Amino acid sequence: MNNDDAIFRQLGTEREVLTVSQLNARARRLLEEVFPAVWVEGELSNLARPSSGHLYFTLKDSGAQVRCALFRQNAARVRMDLRDGLLVRARGRVSLYEGRGDYQMILDAVEPAGDGALRQAFEALKARLQAEGLFAAERKRPLPSHPTRIGVITSPSGAAVRDIISVFGRRAPFIELVISPTAVQGREAAPQIVQALERADRGGFDALILARGGGSLEDLWPFNEEMVARAVAACRTPVISAVGHETDVSISDFVADVRAPTPSAAAELLSPDTRAMLQQLQRSHRQLQQCMKVRLERERLRLDALRRRLRHPGERLAQQSQRLDELELRLRRVWQQRMDLRRQQLASLHGRLQQQHPERLLRLLEERLEQMRQRLPRAMQLRLAQHRQQLESAAQSLHLISPLATLGRGYSILLDSQGHAVRRPQDTQPGQRLQARLAEGSLNLRVEAEEPHTLPLLD
Prior knowledge:
Helices cover 47% and strands 19% of the residues. It contains 13 helices and 13 strands. The strands form three sheets. It has a five-stranded mixed β-barrel. Strands 7-6-8-9-10 form a five-stranded parallel sheet, with helices on both faces. Helix 5 (159-171) runs parallel beside helix 9 and helix 6 (189-201) runs parallel beside helix 7 (226-234). The longest helix has 43 residues, at 313-355. The model has no long low-confidence stretch (mean pLDDT 84). Keywords: Cytoplasm, Exonuclease, Hydrolase, Nuclease. It is found in: Cytoplasm. Residues 134-445 form the Exonuclease VII large subunit C-terminal domain. It is an enzyme of class 3 (hydrolase).
């Protein structure tokens, strides 16, 4: 049996009535004896830094949380920047704060263990919605310049709604504000915010303000829920997200048409300053008066000029009558010139037509045909004589260079069996048969010797 078992066996063995203080003191000693030192990993939240230098915060996971105290001497040894949403590993003893009966841990060391589950969920949802295009600039709708009816989705008892009402009351009291009450913290907040958004989107408002005051990451978490982000994206009415303080950022800020750093800033974005509007109206009134004065003076000068130009209608009729006479004379001159030009053109065309008359052309062609009929026999006789003379000259030249003419003078040509001419005695052999071509006929010969001598005629 170990010490822990012995301690638990002693509980309830004696009938003893304890005071609350005694109960808490014994419970504290029991916890500190059972858990003298333990490491715990969790997400840091609700961090408080009082002037004493001690640090108080909560470590939590998805199912539970525990309060922690890190006293000044131990907090000075921590080399990391503690902040809400940070995943840490903490070492300390389990104890009990007797004054309130709160279960807590007294820590002596804290070291980082990651970014925290809530922060990781925040970044994962942000990346997924951004990939879907819910943060795209082209989806953002402009805010109305002069709204008359605005819906506010927030807690009816929070500081945010009071700030918004104060700003509108000061800057634009004529704008109608309609509060759509909803929880802004806790497990039931997200579904209520979605219902309030859907209800307000059907209310015919010029714009909607989704607002909440500052708080920890856990407090603001309903505005990081996916259902709230998609409800904001589905609104047909322009939405301003004003969640937390200036340094707080939520998923609804990215999805909304406009992000305001605070609820008061959202009210200022939608409430035109009546004093500024009055000053602008006064400036516009003075500018209008000045413009009207300048315009009236300009029109007066123009009227005077027209009055000076205005004359008696009879004068104008006389001038027009004279102008009409001048135009009539000009028309007659132009008409006469045009008629004379047309007559000249007609006479020229008539002369050209006579020159191109078919009967005249036919006579010219007959005369030319008769001339050609007379020239044709003479040209044929002359051409035949020229060709006959050329033929005789060519025949004579051909006869002069013909081998037959040489043979006619007593020469002959020796041919071998292939019909080649024999030019030297060395080209023959004894006994070789040759053919002698004469002017008339030929002789078959046989070579007896290479020495030149008289060859006998073959039989």
